[in-house]
Amino acid sequence: MEVNGDGAGNSTRPRKVFDEDNSAVEIPETAHQISSDSWFQVGFVLTTGINSAYVLGYSGTIMVPLGWIPGVVGLIIATAISLYANSLIAELHEFGGRRHIRYRDLAGFIYGRKAYSLTWGLQYVNLFMINTGYIILAGSALKAVYVLFSDDHVMKLPYFIAISGFVCALFAMSIPHLSALRLWLGVSTVFSLIYIVVAFVLSVKDGIEAPARDYSIPGTTRSKIFTTIGASANLVFAFNTGMLPEIQATIKQPVVSNMMKSLYFQFSAGVLPMYAVTFIGYWAYGSSTSSYLLSSVNGPVWVKALANISAFLQTVIALHIFASPMYEYLDTKYGIIGSPFSIRNLSFRVGVRGGYLTINTLVAALLPFLGDFMSLTGAISTFPLTFILANHMYLKAKKNKLTSLQKLWHWFNVYFFGLMSIAAAVSALRLIAVDSKTYHVFADL
């Protein structure tokens, strides 16, 4: 249900309410709309998150370091374990007589106040880095269009990042909450299909015309170890948002079964395009695959321009999903409810969301090689949030209903992904140390 004010834009505070379909389940106060979206719409929210323009780089960041067999098997396994971990969190959405609409609420309810604060910190650092990465991605797509038509190098990447940040801010001001995306999710899907189809078709053309490719894993034995660890981490980063309870909060009752439908939709229809462009890109270019596939393909200029413009626009929409938990926190804290386009509420979004994205944009322009730092952030936040916490919270919540074998399985996951998190963090730190010798602030990559 939606928690509204008086409908006139007055700054009334959100109220704690009880679910209309289950009066025993308490819903925490929130200024955003909840319990209103179909599982189909939520499925598109999840799919938009994993089928962003980042998929154009998975050939280079996953397949090149791993090779054919480990890369293909790894993606399939990552799909399965990500679906499993997300289903654990989804099942805990209504637990203990409360509906946990934020990840930190769930962790705090199970572990206590310290876990609430720690989860909050990990989640929002993760989402801040993702948002910043999206602005870099959008700026890179704009620059790719520019260089197709001009080689004067007057416009640098930081300029395109600034333009991207401004467009993202305009979009954030016009979309009050996550549920309001609606039609934009369909638009995002169209944009995704455009750049994925273009990348797929042009890569097939290049692959057919190209001589024999080298599929060997590049680098020394030592560097291969670290790149393999990093690629293994990228496998699971690709499927996970770190904000599943916030997305599940928007879905209609019954929230658990509907969320499971959304997850199955994401991991069936959603991953197929990602697999297609990842595998075909590696097949076409081998170990020389670019980290950003559309910069490698050969084809008509207007086709590549269309694909890059689509990538830019889809990135603007996708960023809004990952920024929505911060927007919800700020809107709830300051009582921004009622008409989303009242003068007070609109001016608040302009100032606060605009300020937040300005910081994102500044960091993106300052550190356009942020991918190295995002790998570190993912290692210390995405792994704990998505896999370690998911399994341990499920153990704590369901301990009296689990068999000894089930408990052993969840403890195995906790320790395994704990070790993976440490290994991925070490690999990311090494990557930062190596690349810091090459990159500089406000670099034109």
TrEMBL record:
One GO molecular-function entry:
amino acid transmembrane transporter activity
PANTHER family assigned to the protein according to its UniProt record, in alphabetical order: OS05G0424000 PROTEIN-RELATED
Q: Does the keyword Transmembrane helix apply?
A: yes
Coiled-coil positions are none
Role description: Carrier protein involved in proton-driven auxin influx. Mediates the formation of auxin gradient from developing leaves (site of auxin biosynthesis) to tips by contributing to the loading of auxin in vascular tissues and facilitating acropetal (base to tip) auxin transport within inner tissues of the root apex, and basipetal (tip to base) auxin transport within outer tissues of the root apex. May be involved in lateral roots and nodules formation.
* Main location class: membrane
What the entry lists under InterPro entries is as follows: AA_transpt_TM
Q: Which GO terms describe its biological process?
A: amino acid transmembrane transport; auxin-activated signaling pathway
List, for all copies, the residue spans of the domain called Amino acid transporter transmembrane.
37-429
Compartments it resides in: Endomembrane system
- Entry membrane topology: Multi-pass membrane protein
Its domain of life reads Eukaryota
Q: Which family does it belong to?
A: Belongs to the amino acid/polyamine transporter 2 family. Amino acid/auxin permease (AAAP) (TC 2.A.18.1) subfamily.
Name under which the protein is recorded: Amino acid transporter transmembrane domain-containing protein
What GO terms fall under cellular component here? Answer: endomembrane system; plasma membrane
Give the residue spans that cross the bilayer.
38-57, 64-85, 124-145, 157-175, 181-204, 263-285, 305-330, 350-370, 376-394, 414-433
Record flagged with keyword Transport: yes
Q: Which UniProt keywords apply?
A: Amino-acid transport, Auxin signaling pathway, Membrane, Symport, Transmembrane, Transmembrane helix, Transport
